[in-house]
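DATA SHEET
Item: assembly model
Revision: 1
Owner: S.N.
Input lines:
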Amino acid sequence: MSVTAHRAVVSPARRPRLSATAQHALFAYGLVLPTVLLLLGLVGYPFLYAIFISFTNRVVGNAGHWVGLANFRYLVNSPDFRASVWNTITIVVVSDAAKLAIGLSLALLVNQRLPGRGLFRSILMLPWAMPAFVVFLVWRVIYQPIGGGLNLLLTDTGLYSGYIDWLGEPSTALPAVIVATVWRGFPFWFISILAALQTIPGEQYEAARVDGANAWQRFGAVTFPGIRQVVIITTLLSSIWTANSFENVWLLTQGGPADSTMVFPVLAYFGMQTMQLGQAAAVSVAMLPVLAVLVFAATAMAQRGVED
Amino acid sequence: MSRVSTWTRRRILGASAGAGALAVGGRRSALAAPAIQKGSTLTYWGGLIFSDKANKTLTDAINKWGARNGVHTEVVMVNQNDTVQKVSAAVASGTMPDALDVGLDLLIVLSRQGVFLPLDDPYASIGKQHGGWLSPVEKASLMNGARFGIPFGISGNMLLRRNDVLSPAGFPNPPATWTELVTQAQKVVKPPFFPIGLCLGNCGDGDTQISVLQSYGGRIADDSGKHAAIKSDATRTYLTWVKDAYDKKLFPPGVTAWDGAGDNNAYAAGTIAFAANTGSIGIAARNDDPDLYKGTAYSSLPAGPLGVISPMDPQLRSIPKSSKNPEAAKALFEYLAQPEYTQAYYADAIYGPVLQNEMQLDVFNARDPILAGLLDLVKKGTPPGYPDVYNAAYADVYNNFLIPKMIQRVVVDRWDFDRAMDEAQAQIQATYTKYA
């Protein structure tokens, strides 16, 4: 139908019931409605339902009944849970700090005009591109006390000649898990920071040089403000992913030895193995405050950055 | 050794003919046979095991039975490591198959929730046709006075030992006791050869230590199956045994973080002399390393002061209450108990027999040391959990690896025995209280 014909059909005497603004708003709501419904169905409902289940004694095959805080009391009294709180926080904080240091250093390096930097960037992305289970199974082999790559390296270089039980001793198991987690995760930081670095105009560095700023001063006054927002968002995402990460611990230590690497997701998995759905949900819900603090802190920092 | 009766080719053919008649719904025995609805569909979740041949034998047999009886069969083989998750999701979403293979712990937990149909009639019928059920199988498969599963195979740990290493060192016979095992190990230890390849990690193999603990008189719970009883002098004696052996470096480094493949890998690599294993190590060696296979001997687990504790773990077939074709499933179970099928299946699966007549099958003669070991397990083994009561709380303790964790407290955290036992006692009591 042509525009002219369309105008002819609409009588000038008929006035629309809604104002143009309201029509636009309605149209906009109509457009986002399917997405909102999808999010409510796929995220909101399971999320709220998991919280509800955590207050019941539900097991597979039986809906159970409301038990209040019983599941949480059981968890708090369990040494596994106490270990998992501490270990999860340690893994998240230490590995995020290490990933930031490595990712930032490499991004600054690769941001320079170096020969072959395209190839170098691709190689650095490999740990991130590999399936997680492959990465952690390879690390498991590397950590083997007999015939493992790390011990062979130490023996061949003459640094140590015994069998270090990297995954079997509490003093080395958690650091070993953190190292593997950092190796797997640093490329995400690297590529995010590199992308941010490339948005900083070269003129700002020129101006800083003209003003006599040294390398540290240029980093503090130009580089860091330029990448701060990206670092905050990356920290937020990486923290959530690391806190929820299951494969790193499961494939390396299954939470042992003696709970020295026990984390929330593995504990929840044990709950599922025994079909205690209420208890498993309680473990997941118990993670919420930790993650919520991270999300709110990162959002506030990001907001402050925008206002600045 | 003479046998009272042997399943000869003729007997098998005869029995097969009978089974065929049964399967096609022809002449029936005096026992009431399930009615099969022609043109119906039957979905079956089979338990995927190490042997591809055995998996194929099961799938082919079900499809063959379906074709004979006009039932459309859909067989899905489920990795046994994923059974709990898959079944949990299916129960929650109402998408259970018409019949499935399950382990005893899953059957116990879900039968408490009324997920499965009672199968007392087919259980009695199959037992009657095949000389009766073996006594430990009979005991293990009874839950709250009813049968919710039809047993089809026994698995359990045998002691594998490197006879080619131990015999030259003066130990041609298997260790009769756990103390003797340490004595033999001390004689052959030579890093990187650490003889005692018994897992102490958070995995199913680590739970083998429960049997060792029980053979020392230790108990998870009391006779009522309701109160934790891990803190005892017997547990202390057991912990002394395991700590001494660990401190003497007879266990391989890394054993406290082994997963389910830890002993398999170490045995295949030739770095351990002993392993407690269901037979998968032997099957792998038979296929990949004939020298290792030849140098390996199999026996029942050694004894502690209380005797041998060597639990048999029955695998069972069950029918969910939601099954759309329960009668066909029952008829299929009867068919799968016939020697026509079991003879072929047991030859490749790592399972021992469950019925009296199956012990006479040719496949269980002494030619294959793994199957002979499984037959030995069936004869000498103990019911699941024995001397503890095998209930849902016991299965929870087992699946949360509370005993391997207690050992880890002692050997790697260097806790004293009382502290480790106190923690385990509190955790086990909390678990039993949960199920009270």
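QC remark: The interface with chain B takes residues 59-62, 74, 77-79, 144-147, 163-170, 173, 251-259, 270, 272-277 of chain A (CB under 8 Å).
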